[in-house]
Amino acid sequence: MEELQSTELLDREILEDARKKAYRILKAADEAVQTGVEAWEQKTNAAIAGIRQKYAQGFETIQRELKARLVLDKRRIRAEKIEELLTSALNTYFFNLPRARLLSLLEGTLQRGVAEVQKTGEPVAGFTVQCQGLTHAEGAQILKTSLPGGTWTLIPADSSLIQEEPFPEIVADAPTVQITASIKGLGEALLEDKRAELVEALIGSAVLGTEEIPGTQGVFP
Fold first, then answer.
1. pLDDT digits 0-9 by tens, 185-202
2. Are strands 169-173 and 127-132 parallel, antiparallel or unpaired?
């Protein structure tokens, strides 16, 4: 009887020891799994955060580029619109000038061209002259006051040398030099030399974002 009880006690001890070992093994396994899960979650979260940061930075870069491009486009469109307004304002100004004043401007332009040629030492002679937008009498009168007598011959206009323009133009050809005088060229020179003053006179300093510049009156000839 004692031997049977001893055997049962030994069996219980073995089972209890096995149960404890199994518990420890399962606990260790659970802890290992939990540690692995936490490590994987950390890696996953870090990877997700990195991807989000990467795309956030990329999005910010795209935003900056788009904003910069938008600013440039606005400036370009604004500059083009201002250029159109200036050209239109000049054309309107010239269209509304009295004929005598328009011819006087053309004559002054031709005389300045002649003076530039004289500065170079080239002979002011032998000119074959064509006029567009002028009567023969108007062209001849301007040439008489701008070129020395006997140095020019007025001939019918050749479309290959003179472009069709809404304003008068004179082209004087000599063997070594050509002088062109036109209202269009005068307007282009004004835009080149007096652009800031013309813009302010046209649309105002408030639009330009600058202080008013005195003396803008009389910019146009």
1. 998 888 888 777 777 776
2. antiparallel
Q: 109: closest CA among 185, 166, 178?
A: 185
Read off the pLDDT of residues 53-96 as tens digits, 9 standing for 90 and up. Answer: 777 777 788 888 888 888 888 888 887 888 888 888 888 889 99
With a cut of 50, say whether residue 220 has pLDDT above it: no
**How many whole angstroms separate alpha carbon 9 and alpha carbon 12?**
5
Residue 26 and residue 30: Cα distance in Å, rounded?
6
The packing angle between helices 99-120 and 136-146, to 10°, is 40
Distance between CA atoms of 58 and 50, rounded to whole angstroms?
12
End-to-end CA distance of the chain: 138
Let me know: does 160 contact 173? Beta carbons within 8 Å.
no
